[in-house]
Amino acid sequence: MIVSAVREFPGRYPGLVDHEVLLAPPGSPLYVSRRRGEEDLVAYAGEHWRDRPVVLPGEDEYLVAPLQVRHFTFASLG
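The structure assignment produced for this chain is given below.
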């Protein structure tokens, strides 16, 4: 369901550089996205991107616990 839902994201969100759906132990889906910058993240997730995860339409019926959101930044070394 998640893979199908995010398949069209690169065309819908131009700031999306790369994304993937992974299976994290103990069998929980993990959506990882890389974006050009904060503005692109706000365009996708909204003003509260830091603390409110995006829930896809229909996704909440599959959840056994609230979604968690984590953000990481990349800084070049040179």
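Interim note for the steering committee: The helical segments are 2-6, 9-12, 38-45. The longest strand covers residues 16-24.
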